[in-house]
C-alpha cells in the first residue's frame, strides 16, 4: 500500500467521519452529462448553510438514471469528472494556465477576472469533500503553492508567491522596479495606473512600484483563492491538516511513486505526530513496510 494511504489514515485518525444514525450520509445527486450544472451548484450552495459536522458525514453520490450504491467508487468518479471540467481553462472561467505558451504542460491558477466568487467557493468545497471522504483523484494541475497557502504555510510576501508560481513573470516585475525612466516608459507604454482619487495616470519611474504591486496582485487573484479556501475550510479542519507539510499535503492528494519510509518515521516521531505514532496502528503499518522494503533492498 502506498504512503498516500498512510497519510490519509493519519488524517482520518485525527478527524473521523461522523455518521449519526438518524441521517448517516451527506447526499449529492448529479447528472453525468451536466456534471457541474445548475442542479449540482444549487445543492452545493445549500451545503454552505450546513454545519461542519453535517458536511463531515460520509458522502454518497447518486448519478441520475443510473443504478448503483456509492461505496466510494461513484464518489471518485464524480470528483474525477467535475475536477476535469473545473480545472480545464478551456471549459471553466475559474482557472487559467500559468504557462500559456505551453498549456499542455502547465499547472493552473485562479483568474482574477472570474465574474463571481461562488465558483471558487464551490470548487474549494468539492476539494474538501473529496479529501475528507478519501475520494481522491490526482490533481497535478494544482501547484504546491496552493497546498502551502491552504495550510497557512505559504510565503509571507506576494512577490515570493509569484516567484513560486511563475519565475519568469516575477523576474520581469522585479526588473521593472529597477528600470530607468526611459526604460519604464518603453516597457509600460500604453499602460495606465489608477490612483487613489480614481484618476488614471501614465506609468512612470515614480509610480512604477504601484504598477508592479497591482500586476502582482492581479496575477495572484487573492479574492478568488480566499473564496476557494473558504469552501475548503467549510469541510476540513485546518488545525488538523496543519500537522502536514505542504509536500505531504500534496502527496496526500496526488500520491507518490516512491517514499522514504525511514525519513517519514523520523518525522512521525516529532512532537506533533507523537500521540499518533505511539497509539495508532498506522505507526505499526509504516514500521512493517519499512522493514519489508529494507529486506528487499
From TrEMBL:
GO terms for biological process: protein polyubiquitination. It is an enzyme of class 2 (transferase). Residues 51-260 form the HECT domain. It comes from the Eukaryota. Signal peptide: none annotated. It holds the Pfam family HECT. Its EC number is 2.3.2.26. GO terms for molecular function: ubiquitin protein ligase activity. Keywords: Transferase, Ubl conjugation pathway. It catalyses: S-ubiquitinyl-[E2 ubiquitin-conjugating enzyme]-L-cysteine + [acceptor protein]-L-lysine = [E2 ubiquitin-conjugating enzyme]-L-cysteine + N(6)-ubiquitinyl-[acceptor protein]-L-lysine. This is HECT-type E3 ubiquitin transferase. The lineage of its organism: Eukaryota, Metazoa, Echinodermata, Eleutherozoa, Echinozoa.
Amino acid at each position: 500500500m502506498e504512503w498516500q494511504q498512510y497519510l490519509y489514515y493519519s488524517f482520518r485518525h485525527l478527524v473521523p467521519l461522523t455518521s449519526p444514525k438518524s441521517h448517516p450520509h451527506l447526499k449529492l445527486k448529479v447528472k453525468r452529462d451536466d456534471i457541474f450544472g445548475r442542479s449540482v451548484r444549487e445543492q452545493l450552495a445549500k451545503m454552505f448553510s450546513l454545519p461542519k459536522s453535517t458536511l463531515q458525514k460520509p458522502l454518497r453520490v447518486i448519478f441520475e438514471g443510473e443504478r448503483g450504491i456509492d461505496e466510494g467508487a461513484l464518489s471518485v468518479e464524480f470528483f474525477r469528472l467535475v475536477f476535469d471540467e473545473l480545472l480545464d481553462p478551456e471549459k471553466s472561467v475559474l482557472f487559467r494556465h500559468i504557462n500559456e505558451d505551453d498549456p499542455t504542460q502547465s499547472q493552473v491558477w485562479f483568474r482574477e477576472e472570474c465574474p463571481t466568487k461562488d465558483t471558487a467557493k464551490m470548487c474549494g468545497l468539492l476539494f474538501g469533500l473529496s479529501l475528507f471522504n478519501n475520494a481522491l483523484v490526482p490533481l497535478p494541475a494544482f501547484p504546491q503553492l496552493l497546498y502551502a497557502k491552504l495550510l497557512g504555510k505559504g510565503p509571507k510576501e506576494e512577490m515570493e508567491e509569484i516567484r513560486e508560481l511563475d519565475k519568469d513573470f516575477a523576474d520581469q516585475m522585479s526588473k521593472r522596479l529597477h528600470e530607468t525612466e526611459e526604460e519604464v516608459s518603453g516597457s509600460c507604454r500604453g499602460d495606465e495606473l489608477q490612483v487613489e482619487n480614481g484618476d488614471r495616470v501614465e506609468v512612470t519611474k515614480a509610480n512604477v512600484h504601484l504598477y508592479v504591486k497591482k500586476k502582482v496582485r492581479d496575477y495572484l487573484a487573492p479574492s478568488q483563492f480566499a473564496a476557494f479556501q473558504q469552501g475548503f475550510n467549510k469541510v476540513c479542519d485546518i488545525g488538523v491538516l496543519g500537522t502536514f507539510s505542504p509536500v505531504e499535503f500534496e502527496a496526500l492528494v496526488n500520491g507518490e511513486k516512491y517514499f522514504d519510509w525511514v525519513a517519514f518515521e523520523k518525522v512521525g516521531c516529532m512532537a506533533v505526530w507523537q500521540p499518533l505514532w505511539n497509539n495508532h496502528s498506522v505507526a505499526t503499518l509504516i514500521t512493517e513496510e519499512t522493514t519489508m522494503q529494507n529486506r528487499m533492498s
